[in-house]
Amino acid sequence: AQSVTQPDIHITVSEGASLELRCNYSYGATPYLFWYVQSPGQGLQLLLKYFSGDTLVQGIKGFEAEFKRSQSSFNLRKPSVHWSDAAEYFCAVGKYGNKLVFGAGTILRVKS
Amino acid sequence: NAGVTQTPKFRVLKTGQSMTLLCAQDMNHEYMYWYRQDPGMGLRLIHYSVGEGTTAKGEVPDGYNVSRLKKQNFLLGLESAAPSQTSVYFCASSFPPRGGPGNEQFFGPGTRLTVL
Asked: With contact defined as beta carbons under 8 Å apart, do B38 and B87 qualify?
């Protein structure tokens, strides 16, 4: 069965520091992978997605993610975090029929 | 262009009461979805629809019913609410994955439901 693991429930980084959020997936075929962000009290917004091709994917707000098939990972990165990046981040894998399986989420706190 | 909207934003129910959550989208999307979000569990799919008049069960459908009478609307019903249904409910919509990978899902702002 498809599953997504986000090992870190909470992460705290200093403003201006680099960020990496981990995501591991289990999927039998070529995965379609997504990162969504949820600001407090808001719905989810798509940051980036990977379907095929270049394994380094660029997204909105300066985020990028790298697909590593050998490690079954799709980690999200940002070189310099801003206070406005504080939010909850969800990794998801797409199933047949456009259904999504989400990870449990990682809450990012940014300290000034 | 409002995107995906949900009504109501907040609701408190007593055990055994019923209610309907409304989701509307103005993007002409064929697919619509209902998720629930619980702490530490991410989002889980309740029901979804691939077109007007069609519905299908997701991962956690028990205790919920849905209807898609119009393409732009997707209703989620709780016939007899239970405290275990206390959650934040999100609606989403998308174009279908025609001949290839999935398409981006667009999410509404959520409905926070408390069942006492």
From this structure: yes
